[in-house]
Specification:
The radius of gyration is 22 Å and the shape is globular. It is built from 9 helices and 11 strands. It has one domain: 3-Layer(aba) Sandwich (Aminopeptidase). The longest helix is centred in the first third of the chain and has 23 residues.
Amino acid sequence: MKKIFCLLLLSIIVSCGAKKSVTSGSAELKNTTKPEPQATKPEKKHAKLEDVQSSLEYLASDELEGRNTGSKGIEKAAVYMEKLFKQHNIKPYFKTYRDSFNVKDVVGYNVVGLVEGNDSKLKNEFVILGAHYDHIGTAKAVNGDTIANGANDDASGTVAVLEWAKYFARSKSNKRSVLFTLYSAEEMGLKGSGHLAKRLKDSKLDLYTMINFEMIGVPRAESEIMAYITGYKLSNMAEKLNAYAGNDVVGFLPQAKAYNLFKRSDNYPFYQAFKMPAQAISTFDFTNFDYYHHVDDEADKMDFNHMTNFINKMIPALEGMINASTREIKMNNE
């Protein structure tokens, strides 16, 4: 018995020492100027705050010069997103990730990734999740700063779409196919989304729903629903998303109609082309952020806990929409 006890004790000591040596030997390399998209461990199913913050801080950094369409800065943003897609096995929908177009003498490009559905029939139907990754470049100087970094508008929505792309590529939980679409030239009049919507319509894409995410970097008041959807009364999308999520994630904003928000974001070209539910979701409600098209729309103004929470709360809502056995989200005039 004494010999057995000694052997057990020796085994425990050796085991503990091995675990300690593995832990103490780990290290993390950091790139302070241009971080590579962070790989996510397979067992982690949801967005992590550090990934959300890292991506947004890069996309809204001075290095990208305000991401004006046609600029060197927006090219860097596109390369970053392409690398992230490739790293997480998100396929290009076209021959490459880029959907190029011209606005007069300016060349723009949307970045489009695909996670194919896993259902033999439903995979032929598509859901589009999108956001615009361009901004205005420069704005009126404040304390010598002229770079309009566009952290909330719309690096925040862009990061959300990137995180959902990573999630669905990893989990393989989508029955329908999903396009993850990042648009340029939004600030030039929805030119990027307009080009892509027409191209997909001309190719006879079978679109089920489209959601655009615009300015989700700051939280609303605690008394308000987390986010709101534009074109609230046009479809039953808000009702169905909340049912899928199991709580109220998106609601109604009275000012949305007064400001004509439904027609002012990248969902609108898809609605025009397909006449299907295509709406935008935002957490910016005109009371919680003062730096629209302003040089102080910076990463340090973003609430990363809110962003991560919103991204994760939307996952079951998106899964419910993507995996419904029938087309449950419909226009209200149908």
